[in-house]
Structures are given as structure tokens and as C-alpha cells.
Design brief:
- The protein contains 12 helices and 21 strands.
- The strands form 6 sheets. Strands 3-2-7-19-20-21 form a 6-stranded mixed β-sheet, with no helix packed on it. The protein has a 4-stranded mixed β-sheet with strand order 5-4-1-6, with no helix packed on it.
- It is α/β, with parallel strands linked by helices.
């Protein structure tokens, strides 16, 4: 197959530089040239459209695409759960996200099915099941249900939300099992959470020594640990243990942000899920108690974003959407654009997220040698960032050089 040329678009390349009018040449799934080319090949006219790199969501839960409570009480069949997961994967691609980092819920078979092209979806990096302490965040069994029965909720190859550990040895075993099942990085819950059953936001979970076990096992495989963490004590425990990334960071203070910056630990705030829980708790398949937990989190997370930015922390972007209502994933960029600038939100969702995922230069940027992951927008989302929120504005999505969505 010969080269293809995308011509006429206003190009925002993901680097933070001002937009420019430049033609893009694609060959064998990669960008080979920026600028006019005399080479033969298919020409795709993108006049009047704005081109960005394929977006990256650094915090997704494809495996939580069914209503949460029925999912974990055997009220939904494996077939329906699979249908929900793959529908969400397709909707993610249609929203302009060509790469995601799944931070808990899917098993390795989902990654494989998408990678083989058997179902539509983004490029997926997955931690497999989240690593949690007994009775901590990530456990949704009934109060009377013994912990050892929790794994019966897993559907091998499809979904496995979390694994419970009572000590460092159990955590080491669980981590090795997660890698055996295809995890490419690890995620631990080191504090309580908003969508929790048996924990509080102020709880810390796992000791420094326990977290360090996961860091050691990840380092042995040349990868890293990220942590679900809302409070500063939990964040500091994780940073001390050697993790590379923090999810949420709701109550982050200046001293903890300074420590994160010094240790080169990234932060992935998650605003869209908070808005989701405040405005459509039932749509996420959760009880109203989740709304109460979410109150005040938005304001704290907004302050944490400013604190992290001032301290020089690398800040990515993640939506953390849960339940069936995951079709407006780009809402995270619109929300971040209102707190920073549209360009900063876009860079977080492209170049910075690629760095956090370990894919720097491969995705998240429009440059020679990068994967040809491109989105053409109807309008200019830098001038109107609300365009990110509506998937219909992503009129053309190209993934690895192939057109995977075309509304022109």
C-alpha cells in the first residue's frame, strides 16, 4: 500500500506549539513526513478541520462498563458484560481516543481481542486486576461474603476487578499472577476511595514495605507501579516506596507535591468521574451514598491540580468514567481546559500521557516516526474546548494509519 496524504487541516501536533497548516504523509501505519509531498498516493482533503494526535486517556475502566452493583452480584451474564465492555471500547475510539491505560477491571483477553482487530477499540495498556488490601478500596463483595469468595466474581480472560492481599507475601503472589495474566504495569489502592464499600477517603492502605514489594516486582519486568490515592499520607507512603504515578491525588498539599516532583512521580487527576457521580450516580450503577462521598472532591481536586502544577509535577489526564455512561470521555479535556487552557489540556491528553504510559514519541504527537493516530475535529477545540465533550465532533479518527471512524 502506498503513502496517504492528509491535506488542508489546521494541525495541533501535541507538543504545545501553536497550530500550523501542514500536510501529513502516512505510510505503513506511521507518519513519515510533515509538509507538502509530491509522492503519489491517496489524498484525504481535511480543509476546514482541526487535526490533533489521537487522544490518550490514562485512567479508564473498560471492565466496569456494566452497572457496578449488579455486575458484582451475579445479576448480569458474562455475555452481557462482554457486550458492554466492547461497546465502551468502540465508543472510546469514536470519541477520538486511540490509546488508553486501563487502571483496573479487564483481564488480558480484552486487550488481545482488541489488538487482533476482532472488536473495535483503542490501543490498550492494562494493569489487569487492581491490587488491594483485604477490606480496602476495590472490594465490592457483600458484607457477609468471605474475602476468599471474591475471586469468584472474576471471569477469566474478560474481567477481574481486584485481588486481595493480607500481607506482603500475598501481595507478591497476586502481583506475579497479574503479570502472568498479561498486565503491563501495576496499580495498587493505597487509600480509601469515593466509590468505596468498606473504606473512607482518609484511610491509608498497604504499608510502605508492602507497596515496595509491588515496586520491586514491577522493576524486575522493566515497568512501574501507579497508585489510587486521595490523601497525602497514602501518597507519601507510595512515593517513599518508589511508585511512578499517582491517580486522583485529591487532597495533595504543597509538601507532598514537592516530594512527587523531586522523585519524578506523575499525577493523573480525574475530574469527569466526579462530575459523573455528582450528576448521574444512578447512571453509573451506584447507590446514592456515592454522591455523598463525591461532594467536595471536585473543589479539592481543583486545588490539588494547581498545587501540583506549581510544584512542577508532570500532570497527565484521565477520565475514570465507570458504568455504562462512558461515551463522552472527552469531557475530561473540556473540564481541564476550564481550569487551565485548552492547549494545556490537549498536551496533557497527548504528549504528557504518552510519557506517563512509556510511549513517548510513539503516540500522542504528530511527528515523523510516530504512529499515525490522528483525529480531525469539526471546528477548533482550542477555541471551543466543549467540542471535545461531544464524540460527533471527532469526524475522522485514524489509528495506526487506518481510518476507524469517518463522519465526513
Amino acid at each position: 500500500m502506498g503513502p496517504a496524504h492528509v491535506v488542508g487541516a489546521t494541525v495541533v501536533d501535541g507538543s504545545g506549539r501553536d497550530p500550523g497548516d501542514v500536510d501529513i504523509t502516512i505510510e505503513n501505519g506511521r507518519i513519515t513526513r510533515l509538509g507538502a509531498s509530491s509522492a503519489h498516493g491517496e489524498r484525504l482533503d481535511a480543509e476546514g478541520l482541526t487535526m490533533t494526535p489521537g487522544l490518550i486517556d490514562a485512567h479508564v475502566h473498560l471492565g466496569l462498563s456494566s452497572p457496578i452493583q449488579p455486575h458484582f452480584s451475579f445479576q448480569i451474564s458474562a455475555a452481557e458484560i462482554a457486550a458492554d465492555i466492547f461497546a465502551t471500547a468502540g465508543a472510546t475510539l469514536d470519541a477520538g481516543f486511540t490509546t488508553v491505560r486501563d487502571t483496573g477491571g479487564i483481564d488480558g483477553g480484552v486487550v488481545t481481542a482488541i489488538a487482533k482487530g476482532k472488536v473495535r477499540g483503542p490501543r490498550v495498556l492494562s494493569c489487569g486486576p487492581v491490587q488491594c488490601q483485604i477490606g480496602g478500596h476495590g472490594y465490592y463483595g457483600a458484607d457477609w461474603e468471605p474475602t476468599e469468595l471474591w475471586s469468584s466474581h472474576h471471569i477469566p480472560g474478560l474481567c477481574a476487578l481486584s485481588m486481595m492481599a493480607g500481607n506482603a507475601d500475598e501481595l507478591r503472589r497476586n502481583v506475579r499472577e497479574a503479570f502472568r495474566r498479561g498486565a503491563s504495569f501495576l496499580k495498587l489502592c493505597v487509600t480509601g476511595g469515593v466509590v468505596g464499600a468498606h473504606d473512607r477517603l482518609t484511610d491509608t492502605q498497604f504499608t510502605v514495605d508492602e507497596i515496595a514489594v509491588a515496586v520491586q516486582e514491577a522493576a524486575a519486568r522493566n515497568t512501574y507501579v501507579t497508585v489510587h490515592a486521595h490523601n497525602n499520607e497514602g501518597i507519601r507512603n507510595a512515593v517513599e516506596a518508589g511508585v511512578r504515578c499517582v491517580e486522583h491525588g485529591t487532597s495533595l498539599d504543597e509538601s507532598t507535591a514537592t516530594l512527587m516532583a523531586a522523585r519524578e512521580v506523575a499525577l493523573v487527576p480525574t475530574f469527569a468521574v466526579v462530575e459523573q457521580l455528582l450528576h448521574d450516580t444512578a447512571g453509573a450503577g451506584l447507590a446514592e451514598s456515592a454522591r455523598d462521598r463525591a461532594k467536595g472532591v471536585r473543589e479539592q481536586m481543583t486545588e490539588a491540580l494547581a498545587v501540583a502544577k506549581h510544584a512542577g509535577v508532570r500532570i497527565g489526564l484521565g477520565s475514570d468514567l465507570i458504568g455504562p455512561a462512558q461515551d463522552r470521555r472527552g469531557r475530561e479535556l473540556s473540564l481541564r481546559a476550564a481550569l487551565e487552557t485548552p492547549m494545556e489540556a490537549l498536551v496533557a491528553a497527548t504528549r504528557t500521557n504518552a510519557e506517563i504510559l512509556g510511549l513517548s514519541g510513539q503516540v500522542g504527537v504528530i511527528a515523523p516516526g510516530a504512529q499515525a493516530d490522528l483525529v480531525l475535529w469539526n471546528g477548533n477545540p482550542l477555541e471551543d474546548p466543549e467540542l471535545f465533550s461531544d464524540p460527533t465532533n471527532a469526524v475522522l479518527v485514524i489509528q495506526a494509519g487506518q481510518i476507524v471512524k469517518d463522519l465526513r
